[in-house]
Amino acid sequence: MTSSTELILTAIIDNRFVYARTEDEKAEVVARVIDVEHPQWTSLLYLWDRPCRSMRAHDVEGNEFPRHQMRVYTSPKDGWGAINFADEEAAWETFNPDVPAEAPPSYFDPGHGTEFDRSATIPLELVRKAVTEFASTGKLPLCVNWQPARLI
User: Fold this and answer.
1) 94, 136, 108: which is closest to 43 by C-alpha?
2) In Å, what is the CA distance from 111 to each residue of 6, 39, 108?
3) Per-residue pLDDT reduced to its tens digit, 80-122
4) What angle do CA 148, 20, 127 make, to 5 degrees?
């Protein structure tokens, strides 16, 4: 990968593509992913040297995506969320061994009710840190704990 100023953040938010090139644009996308309720969809993030595109959304011949993806679910009103990160080697989800009983479920796929393991639920500010780190590096964030993702 090249420097973060040359990388483009593609976010699929509420099933719509959004692109960010500058640090300010990336911060705006991160805030939109984390601070806004998305009841039907998790947000998908990619950092790459070009915008990601899909056949359906862009009327192109083939899908164009890198080999890594971050899936983000948040519940801003409750202050919790969960992240799944996958690349060509493996998949991980956030890890919290001490999720309080009052924390709501985190959804891998809210539209179908598919939940993350409860131990993937982390405080919203940790979600923010991890997504911000990913928007800069495109790699598995080091600021949170991870566990192998279960197959869903």
Assistant:
1) 108
2) 34, 7, 9
3) 999 999 998 899 999 999 999 999 999 999 988 999 999 999 9
4) 35
Tell me the whole-structure pTM to 2 decimals: 0.88
Cβ-based neighbours of 18, under 8 Å, separated by 6 or more: 10, 11, 12, 29, 32
Greater model confidence, 54 or 41: 41
Token digits for 129?
């840190």
Residues 6+ apart with CB under 8 A from 67: 87, 88
In the block, tokens 């998908």 appear at 44
Each residue's pLDDT tens digit, 29-40: 999 999 999 989
CB contact at 8 A, 25 and 67: no
